[in-house]
Automatic annotation (TrEMBL):
Signal peptide location: none
Record's keyword terms, sorted: DNA damage, DNA recombination, DNA repair
Protein family membership: Belongs to the RecO family.
DNA replication/recombination mediator RecO N-terminal domain location: 1-73
Statement: the UniProt record of this protein carries the keyword DNA damage: yes
NCBIfam families in alphabetical order: reco
Protein name (database record): DNA repair protein RecO
InterPro entries, per database record: ARFGAP/RecO, DNA_rep/recomb_RecO_N, NA-bd_OB-fold, RecO, RecO_C
UniProt-listed Gene3D superfamilies: Nucleic acid-binding proteins (2.40.50.140), Recombination protein O, C-terminal domain (1.20.1440.120)
GO biological process: DNA recombination; double-strand break repair
Length: 241
């Protein structure tokens, strides 16, 4: 086994550890989520600390240790300063990254998941604050993440009768994981079914297939925005919390 290795990583969180050290949680391209010790990073003169701030994309050299693995060196590739200079963007990035950190299992690398997190941060960093509700972008991230983690919602056929979804009277069934038609709702009504408009159905279908940059171009009114946040939040809670 190698004593050291290098990997590209996104910093998810960090907290004080011992007197001078920090425990840094990263999502790495090659090893997935890892907890690493960054020595001396609580000292004022630390050169390492600046490269290990939350949301930073960095190239990290990991040194294997007996009890913990250590960060031997780190060079930030993107610190996402436009996110850090805007409160709404910080709130959206924190919401997305905190949820990601809570639901992603340790030591399971997945290049597509890494790309999704990076794309989200890139888009949030670049977009004009007036262009989009930042929290909505975070919700699209969570929706796409749930799909990558195997919770693909059924948005085209009724989860009960399998008939094609018609434009009216549908609901989103959390337990069955998708849309339920008006006809089936008369037989299978439960508290785990949320109201969903035809517009929201279209937006979620688009969110499933499109990248974040394309989603920024979609005009979404306040009512649909609220519905999307409710459905994504409830879908997340139903499966993970
Ligand atoms: Zn049906």
């Amino acid at each position: 086994m190698d004593e050291t290795y290098r990997t590209k990583a996104i910093v998810l969180n960090r907290r004080p550890f011992n007197e001078d050290d920090t425990l840094v949680i990263i999502y790495s391209l090659d090893k997935g989520k890892l907890e690493l010790v960054a020595r001396g990073t609580r000292k004022i003169k630390s050169k390492l600390a600046g490269h290990l701030e939350p949301f930073c994309l960095a190239e990290i050299m990991v040194v294997r240790g007996r009890q913990y693995d250590y960060i031997g060196a780190a060079a930030s590739e993107n610190c996402y300063f436009n996110i850090k200079n805007n409160l709404a963007k910080i709130a959206a990035a924190s919401q997305a990254i905190n949820i990601f950190n809570r639901i992603i299992k340790p030591k399971q690398a997945e290049a597509e998941v890494f790309k999704l997190v990076k794309d989200f941060l890139d888009t949030l960093n670049r977009c004009l604050p007036v262009m989009v509700d930042q929290k909505l972008l975070a919700n699209f991230f969570i929706f796409k993440l749930l799909i990558k983690l195997g919770h693909q919602p059924e948005l085209y056929h009724c989860v009960k009768c399998r008939n094609k979804i018609l434009p009216q009277g549908n609901k989103f069934d959390l337990a069955a994981g998708g849309l339920i038609c008006q006809k089936c709702l008369t037989k299978f009504r439960s508290k785990n079914q949320l109201t969903i408009s035809q517009n929201t159905i279209k937006i979620l279908r688009l969110a499933e297939k499109s990248n974040f940059r394309e989603l920024l171009k979609v005009k979404i009114d306040k009512k649909d925005e609220k519905e999307i946040k409710d459905i994504v939040g409830s879908f997340l809670n139903y499966h993970f919390f």
